[in-house]
């Protein structure tokens, strides 16, 4: 049975109250199923009306034929973690890190973000995986409550199955913490993302500076943690997601059997399936497929897994995440548009589809009554030029 999906009201889901009036006119509006020349009006943070034609009323912004589309919805980004730890073992002051993260996302057209925070720690000092999520979540929620954030923020808890403290850390969160997504992450070496141990060795040696001996100990430790806690942590994380009212996501599904387990857990969408077999099984089991924009832009996975473009060609790609490059999200929509020859379908992968997967019914499309999260986008060849960002009717970029 699927986990309950939170239906966020505009009051709960927003960051700041809406602004006054805004009209973007003489624009190519990217609607759900077509592109239409017209104008869109926002009143007090909500879309008030859409009209066809190139007329520019007094006081309106003349978009001169630029696209106007919904603000981007980001379900999985490690960008906040990158700001608080810009180098291994460097703990940057959290308030300026949060504000810089928020501003960076706004500048790339992301108006809704689920900030990914790891829960589940390892006490091995060489691994340096300590607890941090509860403290950082408190700081982020406090900054939001004070009205300092430009865009709408939710939490995404990355539940590390191979850890010692997962359930203890998840117990510190509750239904009032804006936890919208819980993803089940099993990074046991030799399977899922790190089937190739050499790829894992390269990753941790660069990020953590491990020697060969340290790496061997790290692999053995993770395998032992999976043996001791894997089943218990998976069952507990699924239960905690339901307690929060969060959507459940799988991570790095590789086989059809793993997808069946994801379905039984109540997973709503799959993050970064590593094979076309797994992506096909996701669709067969009613699970939306999310891939990374860097994979799409680069033409392949840095871990040697299935290419996002292969899934797109096969009709198995539903959602795109910026993952570790925020600016890649808007670029990915135009790349998909070129691949598919269908801009509305491509834009839906970074707006409507992720909003739906996360249970947000008040954004992701250009329609009256929805949030005034808008982008004005020109083009230089096939490259999008972001010319304006509005979050809840307020200009933020």
UniProtKB/TrEMBL annotation:
SUPFAM superfamilies: Composite domain of metallo-dependent hydrolases, Metallo-dependent hydrolases
GO molecular function: hydrolase activity, acting on carbon-nitrogen (but not peptide) bonds
GO biological process annotation, one example: organic phosphonate catabolic process
Coiled-coil region list: none
Name the UniProt record assigns to this protein: Alpha-D-ribose 1-methylphosphonate 5-triphosphate diphosphatase
């Amino acid at each position: 049975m699927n986990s309950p999906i939170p239906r966020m009201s505009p009051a709960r889901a927003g960051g700041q109250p809406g602004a006054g009036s805004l009209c973007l006119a003489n624009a190519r509006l990217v609607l759900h199923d077509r592109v239409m020349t017209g104008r869109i009006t926002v009143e007090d943070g909500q879309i008030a009306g859409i009209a066809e034609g190139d007329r520019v009323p007094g006081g309106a912004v003349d978009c001169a034929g630029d696209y106007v589309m919904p603000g981007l919805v980001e379900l999985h980004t490690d960008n906040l973690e990158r700001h608080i730890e810009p180098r291994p073992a460097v703990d940057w002051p959290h308030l300026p890190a949060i504000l810089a993260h928020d501003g960076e996302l706004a500048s790339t057209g992301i108006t809704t973000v689920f900030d990914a925070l790891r829960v589940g720690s390892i006490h091995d000092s060489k691994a340096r995986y300590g607890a941090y999520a509860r403290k950082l979540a408190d700081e982020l929620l406090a900054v939001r409550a004070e009205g300092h954030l430009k865009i709408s923020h939710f939490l995404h808890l990355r539940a590390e199955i191979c850890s010692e403290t997962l359930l203890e850390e998840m117990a510190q969160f509750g239904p009032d913490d804006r936890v919208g997504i819980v993803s089940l992450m099993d990074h046991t070496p030799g399977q899922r993302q790190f089937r190739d141990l050499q790829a894992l060795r390269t990753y941790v040696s660069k990020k953590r500076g491990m020697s060969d001996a340290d790496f061997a100990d790290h692999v053995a430790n993770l395998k032992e943690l999976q043996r001791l806690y894997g089943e218990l942590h998976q069952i507990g994380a699924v239960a905690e997601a339901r307690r929060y009212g969060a959507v459940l996501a799988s991570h790095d599904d590789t086989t059809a059997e793993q997808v069946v387990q994801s379905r039984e857990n109540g997973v709503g969408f799959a993050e970064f399936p590593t094979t076309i077999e797994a992506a096909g099984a996701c669709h067969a089991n009613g699970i939306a497929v999310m891939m990374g924009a860097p994979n799409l832009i680069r033409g392949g996975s840095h871990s040697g897994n299935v290419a996002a473009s292969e899934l797109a060609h096969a009709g198995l790609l539903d959602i795109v995440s910026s993952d570790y490059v925020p600016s890649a999200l808007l670029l990915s929509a135009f790349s998909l548009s070129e691949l598919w020859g269908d801009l509305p379908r491509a834009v839906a992968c970074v707006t409507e589809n992720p909003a739906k997967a996360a249970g947000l019914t008040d954004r992701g499309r250009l329609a009256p009554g929805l949030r005034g999260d808008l982008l004005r986008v020109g083009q230089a060849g096939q490259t999008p030029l972001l010319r304006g960002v509005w979050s809840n009717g307020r200009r933020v970029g």
